[in-house]
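Please describe our next protein:
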Amino acid sequence: MILEHLKCARNAMASAKKLVRMERQAPAVSPRLLTAEDVAEVTGLSVETLAQWRSQRRGIPFLKISRNVVRYRQNDLDAWLSERIVRVEQDPSNARSTP
């Protein structure tokens, strides 16, 4: 009986290790690729500004797919936007008092 439990435990451990290896080898989910127009719409920047930033190697990271095809990854855009969040503290003197 104890040997059966040990065998089951070993099998479960082997299966778990195999699953972890498979997860490590699994290809990552393809990132969503956005056009300059998509990014301009989300950010309020112009397509021209994005083109200037690309030529200056600044701004939002981008992928150059071919000579005339540029795309932005959704994750890069999200990260770039997150870096620009301005935190504000609420001034206690401006807070409304509750009766």
